[in-house]
Amino acid sequence: MEAIAVQTENKQYSQVREVFRRLIKRRTAMMGLIIVGLFLLAGLFAPLLAPNDPLEHSLQDMLAKPSVDYPLGRDELGRCILSRIIYGARISLVIGLMVVSIGIFIGVPLGVISAYYGGKTDFIIQRFIDTLLTFPGILLALILIAMLGVGLQNVMIAVGISTIPIYARLSRSSVLAIKNRQYIEAAKSIGASDSRIILQHLVPNSLSPIIVQSTLHMATAILWAAGLGFLGLGVSPPTPEWGAMLNGGRLYMRVAYHVATFPGMMIFVTVLGFNLLGDGLRDALDPRMKI
Amino acid sequence: MTGQYIIRRLLIMIPVLLGVSLIIFTMVRVIPGDPAIILAGPHANKEQVDQIRTQLGLDRHPVVQYFSFLGDLVQGDLGRSTRTGLPVTREIMARLPNTVVLALTAIILASFLGVLTGIIAGVKQNSIFDHLSMMIALFGLSMPVFWLGLMLMLLFSIQLGWLPSVGAESWKHLILPAITLGANSTAIIARMTRSSMLEVIRVDYIRTARAKGLTEKMVIWRHALKNALIPVVTVIGLQTGTLLGGAVLTEIVFAWPGIGRLLVEAILSRDYPVVQGLVLLVAIIFIFINLFVDILYSYLDPRIRYT
Q: What pTM was computed for the model?
């Protein structure tokens, strides 16, 4: 028994290693990994990395061009743009993780239950998903913000809820594909309970597409949250959030382009990193997977 | 068969639309603050607030309120904007054409560029063009719409002075917003066309076409393309809907007077009747686009039969 356990553990370990090996072989995926790694570092160690206080303002230095002490210049209130960008990474990181968690923890169970039980349960859950899908892209998040009110927490909830349908659809189709396989039948015939079948067999087997989707979704979450911040529906000032920074700088485009340019570039690079990593993971986990 | 399918799809739309109407109805009821107090203003006394509450029908049972709300909806009565006092339908209709023009220009641009790039990249797999265009496509996917808009504005309006930056007075005003809005879709359509092309090129009938001596041009244009474009049509359809979301950000950047900007203005000023109306409109548009795409799909590919 113990030998089997060790063997399975080894097998899992070597699977992870194989996926990682395939991942770093691709140059683009490697680039994604580096960008995401830097983003995580910036988010985790913001206070150590930021050269200045992100909230300290100085009106006589407003819109100052980049200099040695302020490498990316100062914003409309004279705050250090680089420091705000580094602290902004922390906010984007929290937003991304929260959004993806909401999507996974609500969407995946919905999809699995929908596919496993079928019939009426499936119909009702699918109509609920259809209703959420009636609002394309960022619009559902916007509508939810209209209901919940503005603020960072509401942005996370709103964007999180808008990602539920994708996880639900994804896990539903993976479960549908495997639920009639022999090993599920076998588990049923030896008297395994529904919850055991779902947790031990169905969920682990639909994990690959969910991992890929989550990586790609970190990108979408950061992008949408920044969009909502840009519209003035996100964090309240003076919190350094990339979208809100861009919005603050946009009025000064003619005189000080750097105020809006750098936060936008950060959003772009970070989102690109997650997209590259997601694409790479998809190829490494299962080349036939289509998302 | 297709007729039956359309009817079934229309029937399925009923619970979805009811769900949407329920969301819209709940929207005003869950927001913090009593709408009657907000409407009455800060100086109103209790009687005035009560009067407004009765006027709005807010003193009735929620279920009664929901059905009367549904009744008004069916008659096209969306109420009046709390900001301007004008009927919501009039507010929306005044802005809708601008968004339609912007979204259509963007999707036409995106389809043309995306499909063309996708075909060339697919046919010349692993060429420099393929790698370069797919890299640019990935950039397009990762680009925040609002940042791209600002950067284009910075370059073409502020630095070069070639195009106007804000407003919607002439066709020149349309160029930058349409490119901004279409960029993301161009990338998605290009990626989809390429992968679809790659898949089709490998199948048997393409090998047969080559084997019987058709020119490569004939094989690509007559045989491969026709089949490869079927999934692309779906993506283009879905993108048309998604563009409505992107339009919100684009319209804000370029001060384009469309429904996206109206939505943000309405949310920020808590003009809930307008928000409700827009939400409903977008939902209906999107549902019909999806239905249309599915039907078109079955026409393009005779093998697809919906039952």
A: 0.82
pLDDT at B305 over 70: no
| Nearest beta carbon to residue A138 from set B20, B245, B267 | B245
* Three-class HEC string of chain B: CHHHHHHHHHHHHHHHHHHHHHHHHHHHHHCCCCHHHHHHCCCCCHHHHHHHHHHHCCCCCHHHHHHHHHHHHHCCCCCECCCCCCEHHHHHHHHHHHHHHHHHHHHHHHHHHHHHHHHHHHHCCCCHHHHHHHHHHHHHHHCCHHHHHHHHHHHHHHHCCCCCCCCCCCCHHHHHHHHHHHHHHHHHHHHHHHHHHHHHHCCHHHHHHHHCCCCHHHHHHHHHHHHHHHHHHHHHHHHHHHHHHHHHHHHHHCCCCCHHHHHHHHHHCCCHHHHHHHHHHHHHHHHHHHHHHHHHHHHHCCCCCCC
ipTM, interface predicted TM-score of the complex: 0.80
CATH code linked to domain B97-257: 1.10.3720.10
Per-domain residue ranges for chain B?
2-74, 97-257
pLDDT in tens, B20-56: 888 778 776 666 556 666 666 667 777 877 877 777 6
Q: Which residue of B has its CA nearest to A253?
A: B154
Contact status of B158 with chain A (Cβ, < 8 Å): yes
